[in-house]
Amino acid sequence: MKASYDFTAAKRGPVLKPTGKTRITIFLDDDVLAAFRERAAAEGKGYQTLINEALRSAAAPESAPVTVEALRRVLREELQVA
């Protein structure tokens, strides 16, 4: 090791470029986390991936898959019109 180093041209910040993900701290209820972990084990995915997918679909509900509740609501509306 050298006795001293020159940091006059050094830059602050991450050594690696960001990958499109940000590390945050979030508090989730224990039962919610347990449910995602169980589902992740059954599907063979990571629980954080499933949480990310759930948050993404909640943020853009128009691109979310059709749920049973939504399908029932639409059918009821159409049957009332007919």
* Terminal CA distance: 83 Å
Structural class: mainly alpha
Unreliable segments of 5+ consecutive residues? none
| Most strands sheet | none
Strand content: under 5%
Query: Strand tally, please?
Result: 0
In words, what does this structure look like?
With 82 residues, this protein is mostly helical. It has a domain at 30-81. It has helices spanning 30-43, 47-59, 68-81. Helix 1 packs across helix 2 (47-59). 0% of the residues are buried.
Could you list some keywords that capture this structure?
82 residues, mainly alpha, 3 helices, elongated
Layout of secondary structure:
Blueprint: H1 30-43, H2 47-59, H3 68-81
Helix pairs in contact: 1-2
Summarize the structure.
By secondary structure, the protein is mostly helical.
